[in-house]
Amino acid sequence: MATELLLLLAVLVVGVVIGVVIVSNRAKKNTNVRAQTPPPPRDPFANEGDTTGDPRALKAGDMLDWGHERTWIRGSLRLSEGGYTWSEHFLEVDGGKRWLSVEEDPDLELVLWTARPDTELTPHAKTLEFEGVTYRLEERGTGSYRSEGTTGLSAQGGLDYADYESDTGQLLSFERFDHGGWEAATGQKILPGSFTIYPGS
After folding, report:
1. pTM, to two decimals
2. 131-144 residues labelled b (16+ CB within 10 A) or e (exposed)
3. Rounded distance, CA 182 to CA 66, Å?
4. Rounded Cα–Cα distance for residues 133 and 168 (Å)
5. Which residues lie below 8 Å from residue 103, measured CB to CB, with a gap of 6+?
6. 142-188 confidence digits (pLDDT tens)
7. How far does Cα 56 stand from its chain's mean position?
8. Residue 79 in contact with residue 176, Cβ under 8 Å?
9. 3-class secondary structure, 160
């Protein structure tokens, strides 16, 4: 009788061990299947907490929602001078040319620029007067660019720039690409979170 009980207990223990192994293997298979399944498509306009996005990741095709208007990025310039890099993103707007510059120096700095083709001003001096505002030269240099999307420029090339700032924080900038003419723009610093980014496809 004792032998039969021991044999029955041994069979039960073996059965339990086999059951645990089977359940464990199935759980591993289900985990692997879930890991290989791509995430379902998501609604880019869904409210999921902080949707402002990372301006450092902007690219052509992304949409920016400013709260009162929406614009799309038509193209981007990736600029570099030595080991320093920054980006300019050209926006789809009516009746003018606007772009958003994104740089870290060392903090993230965003500037919304408006082209000023109505002036023939050039960066010829350390101090410039424009529309009643005095600007002082902050920085000038020479670098290279790489073009993405629609920018009106070659795929890559060179640029010269000169940046001015007033005592009140107003910005005036000049750029010329591939030894062309100087292009002037006025700029306004904006805070991260001033717009919401909806990534393009």
Report:
1. 0.73
2. eeeebeeeeeeeee
3. 29
4. 9
5. 85, 86, 87, 109
6. 999 999 999 999 999 999 999 999 999 999 999 999 999 999 999 99
7. 3
8. no
9. strand
